[in-house]
Design a protein that fits this description.
With 173 residues, this protein is mainly α. It contains eight helices and no strands. The N and C termini lie far apart (49 Å).
Length: 173
């Protein structure tokens, strides 16, 4: 617990400390126990009683009102469905403008497909995978308990990616 308290005093967020404990330290030491490298996992129970230096506080009523006023749209809270609807309106407006511009400029249309919050999430994760991010780091960011889920859902292979990987091999040879 002293180690985690020291990290907290150094400015690490409590969520970060818990993520390191649950996704890195505990599993690594459990691996050591399972392979008879150590007898007992010294990290087991270390988070019990740890509350972190910075306590989470509720917003004041004034802060809450300011926040709610900011996220409201048409008098309703800004929910996932409202966010998706806003994205839909943006895509529709872009496509209208693009259609007119392409017609005026006598060029091929470049229209956007349907976009949702889930598609943006999926796109971000796909770009991280394409950039070569360590799959285990990607798994942690995505919150998947199993690496197979991360690799199956978010790790796409397309022709462009195949060509990039082949070029890497050409430079290595």
């Amino acid at each position: 617990m002293k180690f985690y308290s020291a990290l907290s005093r150094e400015g690490y967020a409590d969520a970060t400390i818990r993520m390191y404990h649950n996704n890195l330290i505990m599993p690594a030491l459990e691996f050591a126990v399972d392979n008879d490298l150590i007898r007992k996992n010294p990290a087991k129970g270390c988070l019990e009683g740890y509350e972190g230096i910075r306590r989470r506080e509720a917003l004041t009523r004034r802060e809450q009102q300011v926040f709610l006023d900011f996220v409201k749209s048409n008098g309703r809270p800004f929910t996932v469905s409202l966010f998706n609807a806003a994205l839909g309106r943006m895509v529709k407006r872009y496509n209208e403008i693009e259609t007119e511009a392409a017609r005026r400029e006598k060029r091929e249309l470049v229209l956007l497909p349907h976009i949702s919050n889930h598609i943006l999430w999926h796109t971000g994760c796909t770009r991280m995978a394409e950039s070569g991010m360590d799959p285990k780091v990607l798994q942690t960011i995505m919150g998947h308990s199993n690496i197979a889920v991360t690799m199956r859902i978010y790790n796409h292979v397309d022709q462009e990616r195949i060509e990039r990987e082949i070029k890497k091999m050409e430079y290595a040879i």
